Amino acid sequence: MRIDALIGTAAVRLQAAGIEQPTREARLLLGHATGLGPTRIMAYPEQIIDPLAAEKFERLVDRRVAREPVARILGTREFWSLDFTVTPATLDPRPDSETIVEAALERIPDRKSSLSIIDFGTGTGCLLLALLSELPNAWGIGVDRSEATAQVAVGNAQRLGFAARAAFIVGDWATALAGSVDLIVSNPPYIPAGDIAGLEPEVREHDPLMALAGGADGLDPYRVLAAEVGRLLRPGGHVVFEVGQGQADDVAGLAASAGLVLIEQRADLGGIMRAVVLGKPAGERA
After folding, report:
1. Which pLDDT does position 1 carry in this prediction?
2. CB 193 within 8 Å of CB 139
3. 193 in helix, strand or coil?
4. What CA–CA distance (Å, rounded) separates 21 from 185?
5. Is 19 helix (H, G, I), strand (E, B) or coil?
């Protein structure tokens, strides 16, 4: 069959299944099935695809119609213009989380300075590695409770060329850490327990539960992290938390009780307050 016929038929099926941007996703799946790049697929719609590749494509479309995320089908997700491997052990990085990277970078006056970073709940390592891609003299540590997840982050750091400046450890938040750092970022689990069942199938059925569930009100991880980041952050340093809808004020309040000062709450592209930026006053001891 021709490329345009395959894409057209798949897009109709995907749209009927409630998939946003069905044509774009059909092209991604066809590229994965055939090895053709996006430019080739768009420039040569009349190209004939051999039957074996077409059958593979149809199987991929079946999986997406069943609401398996396209990133999990492809095995990769683009984040901050970097390609990250995703597995069943990791959260699927989402564009909303790029708000955290943007907010963190704006607190750094000299991007060539030597900086130390901690990323709690690192997952694929996307926040830490995106920051390292913009900060050539920085180094960082990613912490995750899952060994399988940390191994994915290690692989991403190696593949993207940041292994010399990134280390990943398995631990329960900051219990294994001491000292002080310049920047802390975190996208912890923040979904209230009662909301898990109502999530989209792509999230509910494919993201690991331990990366989603934040306790009864979704704030349990912040209760732990507020005190820990106050201990680990150097005077004048910053922390950027990702938060769920309606949680920004509560998280800022928890951080204030640990001596951190609210600098900014930042919305994502959907208008949801997604990032809480906090600082440790320069006169305080680390």
Report:
1. 86
2. no
3. helix
4. 31
5. coil
Distances in Å between the Cα of 279 and the Cα atoms of 137, 141, 195, 270, 276 are 22, 19, 31, 25, 10
> Percent of the chain, pLDDT > 70?
99
Residues 6+ apart with CB under 8 A from 33: 53, 54, 56, 57, 60
Task: Give the chain's radius of gyration (CA, Å).
Answer: 21
User: So what's the pLDDT on residue 38?
Assistant: 87
- Across all residues in the chain, what is the average pLDDT? 94
Other CB atoms within 10 Å distance of the CB of residue 102: 14
Total domains present in the chain: 2
Residue 243 near residue 192 (C-beta atoms within 8 A): no
Residue 285 — pLDDT band, cuts 50, 70, 90? low
Rounded CA gap, 12 and 114, in Å?
51
Q: Is the pLDDT of residue 275 over 60?
A: yes
Residues 20 and 114 in one domain: no
Nearest CA among 218, 184, 187, 162 for reference residue 90: 187
- Pair of tokens at residue 50: 């051999």
Residues 34 and 113 in one domain: no
In this structure, are 121 and 35 located in the same domain? Answer: no
Domain holding 85, by residue range, is 76-279
Q: Is the distance from CB of 125 to CB of 84 less than 8 angstroms?
A: yes
